[in-house]
Amino acid sequence: MVVGGNTQRGNDRAGIFPGGMARPHAGKTDRGAADIRRCARHGLAGLGIHRQRPQQQRTHHPLLPGRFSWHISPLVLLGMVDAVLQNPSALSDTIHVTGNWHELKISPASISLPAERLASLGAPLNTIQPSGQMRLSWQPLQLSLAGGQIAVKGRMDLAMQDIASRLSPIKPLGAYNLAFAWQGKQAAVTLTTNKGPMLLAGSGTLNNGRLTFSGTARAEAGQEDRLANLLNLLGQRRNEGGKDIIALEFK
After folding, report:
1. Residue-level pLDDT at 34
2. 146 or 85, which is more confident
3. Terminal-to-terminal C-alpha distance of the chain
4. What's the pLDDT score for residue 33?
5. Cross-strand partners of 4
6. How many CB atoms within 10 Å of residue 25?
7. Cut 0.85: pTM above it
8. What is the pLDDT of residue 55?
9. Considering only CA atoms, which of 196, 197, 203 is closest in space to residue 228?
10. Buried b vs exposed e over 61-100: b needs ≥16 C-beta within 10 Å?
11. How far is CA 64 from CA 2, 8, 20, in A?
12. Cα separation of 218 and 51, whole Å?
């Protein structure tokens, strides 16, 4: 049974699975409520996707390694939040969440993410089928809740190492960093290339979950022909300063 499932695509459903295992549907809502009550203050769970195809048995595909364990202090009943979240297989450190129902502080940490999951974001990533290693890290974050809206203050970085694509003979394509500087409901987004034959750069904003981004993609000198097909999938080609680039535009 899925507890807290929040995304669904076709017959795939993402969620938190008690004990890190996929459970069959109980067929009764009272059992679901009991599972949620048992997991509310402390528990153990894995994060994954249920996948079911016609005439096939449902399977569970973990999104992240290991299992998440958490403990919430009983003081939450008095409006004081003191919680810890652990997963040595995925998290660099124990995450501490403190504060109250209006303001929360989240301790710094990082989490490893599979680049293969980027394909679930749709075109053109589902065609490119990226692979590699990603790590999302953050400095201390402050969250505030007012009027049913969440505001965030702090910085997050998504480091992408050894990124490759099945459509390119060059492997890896490079190493990149995507930075998020949060101020309230909006984050300034900056994409930079650390190294690699495919050079990416750009900036934009993430506002209420909507990304506006303008950037470029190009091949380093001598790699233009080998990267041409892949770059054509990323955007429209244009010439700037005598160089062919690909415009990365998301609006």
Report:
1. 39
2. 85
3. 37
4. 41
5. none
6. 11
7. no
8. 56
9. 197
10. ebebebbbbbebeeeeeeeebebbbbbeebbeeebebebe
11. 16, 17, 10
12. 37
Compute the residue count for the chain: 251
Extract the tokens encoding 11: 């017959």
Measure Cα distances from 187 to 103, 204, 205 in Å.
18, 9, 6
90 contact partners, CB below 8 Å, separation of at least 6: 64, 65, 66, 68, 111, 112
Which token pair is 176? 């990149």
The DSSP secondary structure of 10-68, one letter per residue, reads TTEEEEEEETTS-----S-HHHHHHHHHHHHHEEEEEEEEEE--TTS--EEEESSSS-E
Q: CB of 21 within 8 A of CB of 46?
A: yes
- Mean pLDDT lowest among 6-20, 147-161, 171-185: 6-20
Q: Is the four-CA dihedral 87, 44, 142, 75 of positive or negative sign? A: negative
With CA atoms as reference, report the closest residue to 115 among 105, 125, 102, 103: 125
- Please state, in angstroms and rounded to a whole number, the distance separating the CA atoms of residues 116 and 15: 18
Among 39-43, 114-118, 149-153, 221-225, which is the least confidently predicted range? 39-43
173, with CB counted inside 10 A (0-12, 13-18, 19+), is buried
Q: Which residues neighbour 126 within 8 Å (Cβ) at sequence distance 6 or greater?
A: 119, 120
- The strand pair at 80-86 and 95-100 is best described as antiparallel
